[in-house]
Amino acid sequence: MHLIRTLVLPCLLLQPMLVVAQPSDPAPGPPATQTAATAADPRDETLTLDRVMDQVVVAHPSVMAARIRAFASGLGKQAAEYGLYPSVQSDMARGGGGAQNSLLRLTQPVYSFGRLSSAIDAAGAREQVALFQIGEAIVQVQVSLIEIMEPLGDRIYRATF
Fold it and tell me: Is the pLDDT of residue 26 over 90?
């Protein structure tokens, strides 16, 4: 049901604007020159199936979610890489008699028995999976859109003649 709301409704709203491009012979006579006054307004452009598909894919929630997951997994890889760098910790405590004790600690991982490198590799693998999921989401949306548009294609084609 969610798929129908996210794909069918926009397609039905865009249906009157869709035009199947047909090859046409150029008009006889000299080529027309286009001035600023006669330039086509970008809002008057007709939508082709490619443009509709691009717009639906960019705005589709599953594609956006896949892109956000890929971004988050990239940040996870960066966080894993930061484990290789030194870290600074500070502690402050108030002792008896109002004295303050402070401790500043600098730690550098010297050898972690592969823990850090395996964490980086795992985060990189998760990032690659998330990037492939973007492509998978795009293909799923395109297939759904084609399945929806296929029955409409004949009516649109017939309406242009």
Answer: no
